[in-house]
Specification:
The structure is a single chain. The longest helix has 37 residues, at 30-66. Helix 22 (690-712) packs parallel to helix 24 (731-743). Helices cover 47% and strands 25% of the residues. It has an eight-stranded mixed beta barrel with strand order 23-24-26-27-28-29-30-31, surrounded by four helices. A five-stranded antiparallel beta sheet has the order 2-1-5-4-3, with helices on both faces. Residues 1-11 have low confidence and may be disordered. It is an alpha+beta fold. It binds ligand C2E and magnesium ion (2 copies). Ligand C2E is lined by residues 648, 663-665, 676-678, 681, 697, 721-723, 753, 783-784, 807, 840-843, 860-862, 867.
Length: 882
């Protein structure tokens, strides 16, 4: 259509040509068209145009030249190529040697491009085939390939449409192609890089992200999305901020405001990093999805190639576990360093690798001295090798050991420690380390021992105390039960110990107790227990008893041993003991009953005259009940006129004259008959009845003395026994003085019998009472002399008139030379000190003869008479006279 516009003269020629030249620059294929136009122009306006054409040909040639284009014409009929341009540079051919036909041209084409070249060429050959346009490689003369672009088309066909002539241009596009390839490669590289980056960041466990200056995500890796943001995918965070995700999480758990507490925190540290403009580290912690999380966060300003800050980049590592471990380690090391327990760690071979300050404190070895050494450096040689062997075997078997070890300090001191050893294993099960800790328990052991001794032993005598005794007895009873053997329990009470204590002082008393305990212990086997219950009470457990008789022998030995004089410094003291014995299993089978039994038996021994032992039998139980009933009966005895005074004559040995009698109390019990005063006086004393009874006795005896002094002579005297309880009572004196005044009885006719014990109390009460007797003209006799502890010289000081030698001396007077010597000494001494002597319990002529030989003054006993009723006494006196 362009052509027809030209032909119609509607477009100027110049314009047309310029247009074609320009077009040809862009599309070299239009060369043929130009030629065709030129030919047409030639035909129609040949003359006018000729000069213009020549001018424009030049212009076109210039244009072609400047486009660096090879313009060609392919004669398909003759298979010849003509080049319209002067230079063939496209593929490095010289101008003289360009391919002159299609086959040669084709042979230069790159094998990869040739096929496509053919295809396109055939397309273009077809009627209406259009323009051939193809970029392809051709061989250069130098062996390299050049890229060329050829555009062309069929410009002439025959009537059948068969192509006759083709024309077009070829330009060298090698440079462009190279630039394109380069661009492509760099694009691909960039693409690969970003994919790689994504892969890398999504595969690391650390959280990685980048944000813009408004703290909106530009990038977040998978770890970030999964672990902190809880985002759907890695694209979701883009354009959103931390707070968005934090709030979404919190809202998903309205019940738990602590569900996600990280949002603000992240934004704060973003701001700080942005503000400071330098890389920074943050220790951030809070809750994420309900779990405590601790992050080690690194943030840095995000700076682009132009050096502008465009945001912040960061990474975070989950250090929750690591921090927990660090904290544990920190604590462990704090504990290790500051523990009061000594610790040391050895390697698997047992060599010390670390010690703590407490170790140095306890052992004296500095760390440097201990490290590399074996713990055997602490050995005390107080344990057998087998001790260490069993320790190691337990350690190897169970991984730990604990126990008490005696070790040695650097200064040589041996100390006790409580040690525990634990093993730390390698993952493969082999030993990595042994950790030992120990504390010095020497002091504790010592004080434990002290406390134990204090709790279980009597501080004075060093023998077991009541508590230990009970323990032992419990144990021994169990043992005896298992072994089917017997056991004896002795309860021992020193007789008249109080007197020693009071006269000689407590220090001497203490010394006596110590010695007594030693003497008792010497009488028994090691396996037996001697304990002090307190005061002068001791117990002896004879365990594993198979011979009943040995009990008696031991008891006798103890009595014998205790009756020997105690030499206590300057002083000599005499005591005896009363022992109660009970037997397992005969009497009882348990601790409490055994104790009760032994106590009762001891009481019996005391009451039957002391310095003896007594067995417990069930009958004794009855006795206790009996005493209780007796006491009740005694209360009504006085009112019921069951009490009566009997009188036992006291005979003057030298003359046989009776001018003294002792008033002895008799109780005619309505059911039991006559009850001995030895039985009921203690009951009266215990119950306080003794005062009423005593007053009655005094009144009764004084009346009798008054009567008999008239009948038997002015010097007739009646002895009245006074219980210590009476003498010590303040009211006693007034009562008897008042009584004497009322009855007008003379003190000359009365003697008061008191026991040594009363004097030993040394109370002012007793002294004034004694003075009152003297003032009233009443004489005083010491009853049962020789059984207790008192010196004659002491009695003299107290103005005592008579000494009554105890029956027990009389019993042995004939056979026992020492008792005889003692009796004799008493007589001699008493006389020297102006006292008279009355011998009690004289039963035989032999005894009397001996007493007479000694110069004893009076005798009282069954040899002459028992205590008689007043009537019988009077009969006796009458008989004497006659
Ligand atoms: P006692 O004062 O030493 O009295 C002497 C005891 O020896 C009396 O026992 C007497 O019967 C007993 N006796 C006398 N001659 C012989 C003898 O040849 N052989 C033996 N085996 N015994 C002899 P009795 O009457 O049973 O009195 C026992 C104790 O009771 C008295 O010992 C005295 O301490 C106390 N007693 C008696 N009457 C009274 C009293 O009225 N008041 C107080 N407080 N005690 C009294
Ligand atoms: Mg008497
Ligand atoms: Mg007596």
């Amino acid at each position: 259509s362009g052509m027809s516009l030209i032909l119609q003269g509607e477009i100027t020629r110049d314009y047309l040509i310029t247009g074609f030249v320009a077009a040809s620059l862009v599309a070299p294929s239009s060369l043929a068209l130009i030629n065709q136009i030129l030919r047409t122009l030639k035909q129609t306006q040949i003359q006018s145009l000729e000069s213009t054409v020549a001018r424009h040909r030049l212009t076109i040639e210039m244009a072609i030249e400047s486009a660096q284009m090879d313009v060609w014409e392919l004669d398909l009929v003759n298979n010849a190529i003509k080049y319209n341009t002067a230079r063939i540079k496209v593929h490095g051919f010289t101008e003289s040697d360009p391919p002159r036909n299609l086959q040669v041209w084709l042979s230069y084409i790159h094998p990869d491009d040739i096929e496509e070249f053919h295809r396109r060429m055939q397309l273009a050959m077809l009627p209406g085939g259009g323009i051939f346009d193809y970029e392809y490689r051709v061989a250069t003369g130098t062996g390299a390939w050049n890229w060329v672009r050829t555009r062309g088309g069929i410009i002439q066909r025959d009537a059948t449409g068969k192509p006759l002539l083709a024309a077009g241009g070829t330009i060298n596009i090698t440079e462009r192609k190279q630039a394109e390839a380069q661009l492509h490669a760099s694009e691909e590289r960039a693409h690969n890089l970003s994919r790689l980056l994504r892969l890398i960041t999504d595969n690391v466990t650390d959280m990685i992200w980048a944000k813009d200056t408004n703290k909106r995500f530009l990038f977040a890796n998978k770890a970030m999305c999964d672990r902190l943001l809880n985002a759907k995918d890695t694209d979701e965070p883009i354009g959103k901020d931390d707070l968005f995700f934090a709030l979404r999480e919190r809202n998903s758990h309205p019940d738990d405001p602590e569900w996600h507490t990280f949002g603000e925190l992240c934004q704060d540290s973003d701001a700080i990093a942005l503000e400071n403009g330098i890389p920074m580290e943050f220790d951030e912690y809070g809750n994420v999805k309900g779990r405590f999380l601790r992050l080690d966060v690194h943030k840095a300003p995000f700076i682009n190639e132009q050096g502008e800050v465009i945001g912040v980049v960061g990474s975070a590592r989950d250090v929750t576990q690591q921090k927990a471990i660090e904290e544990k380690l920190r604590l462990a090391s704090l504990v290790f360093e500051n523990s009061s327990e000594a610790m040391f760690i050895t390697d698997d071979k047992g060599f010390i690798v670390k010690v703590n300050p407490a170790f140095t404190r306890v052992t004296g070895y500095a760390a440097a001295e201990a490290i590399g050494k074996n713990p055997s450096m602490l050995r005390s040689n107080m344990h057998e090798p087998s001790f260490y062997q069993s320790m190691w075997s337990e350690l190897q078997r169970t991984g730990h050991w604990q126990g008490e070890i005696w070790n040695r300090r650097k200064n040589g001191e041996v100390f006790a420690e409580w040690q525990s050893i634990n093993t730390i294993y390698n993952p493969d099960g082999t030993v990595h380390r042994y950790v030992s800790l120990f504390s010095d328990i020497t002091e504790r052991k010592k004080s434990e021992e002290r406390i134990w001794v204090q709790a279980n032993f009597d501080p004075l005598t060093g023998i077991p105390n009541r508590r230990m005794f009970r323990d032992r007895l419990t144990q021994d009873l169990k043992k005896a039960h298992r072994a089917g053997m017997g056991l004896a329990l002795m309860f021992l009470d020193l007789d008249r110990f109080k007197e020693v204590n009071d006269t000689l002082g407590h220090d001497v008393g203490d010394a006596l107790l110590v010695e007594a305990s030693q003497r008792i212990a010497a009488c028994v086997r090691e396996s037996d227990t001697v304990a002090r219950l307190g005061g002068d009470e001791f117990t002896v457990i004879l365990a594993e008893l198979n011979d009943r008789n040995s009990v008696e022998r031991i008891a006798a030995n103890i009595l014998q041993s205790l009756s020997c004089p105690f030499q206590l410094g300057e002083e000599t003291a005499y005591v005896s003991a009363s022992i109660g014995i009970t037997l397992y299993p005969d009497d009882a089978d348990n601790l409490e009953d055994m104790l009760k039994n032994a106590d009762q038996a001891m009481y019996v021994a005391k009451n039957s005259g002391r310095n003896r032992f007594s067995y417990f039998t069930n009958a004794m139980q009855e006795m206790a009940l009996y005493r209780l009933r007796m006491l009740n009966d005694l209360r009504s005895a006085l009112g019921g006129h069951q009490l009566q005074l009997h009188y036992q004559p006291i005979v003057e040995i030298s003359t046989g004259r009776i001018h003294k009698a002792e008033a002895l109390l008799r109780w005619n019990h309505p059911q039991r008959g006559v009850v001995s005063p030895a039985e009921f006086i203690p009951l009266a004393e215990e119950s306080g009845l003794i005062h009423t009874i005593g007053d009655w006795v005094f009144a009764q005896a004084t009346a009798q003395a008054q009567e008999w002094s008239v009948r038997y002579g002015d010097d007739f005297q009646i002895s009245v026994n006074k219980s210590p309880i009476q003498v010590q009572a303040k009211t006693d004196q007034c009562k008897w003085r008042e009584h004497m005044a009322r009855t007008g009885v003379s003190g000359r006719n009365l003697v008061i019998e008191i026991t040594e014990g009363v004097l030993l109390d040394n109370s002012p009460q007793v002294t004034t009472e004694l003075l009152a007797y003297r003032d009233a003209g009443i004489q005083v006799a010491i009853d049962d002399f020789g059984t207790g502890y008192s010196a004659l010289s002491y009695l003299k000081k107290l103005d005592i008139d008579y000494v009554k030698i105890d029956q027990s001396f009389l019993r042995n007077l004939v056979n026992d030379l020492s008792d005889r010597a003692l009796a004799e000494a008493i007589v001699v001494m008493a006389h020297k000190l102006g006292m008279q002597v009355i011998a009690e319990g004289v039963e035989t002529q032999e005894q009397l003869d001996l007493l007479a030989a000694m110069g004893c003054d009076y005798a009282q006993g069954f040899l002459y008479a028992r205590a008689l009723s007043p009537q019988d006494f009077e009969l006796l006196m009458a008989r004497q006279k006659g």
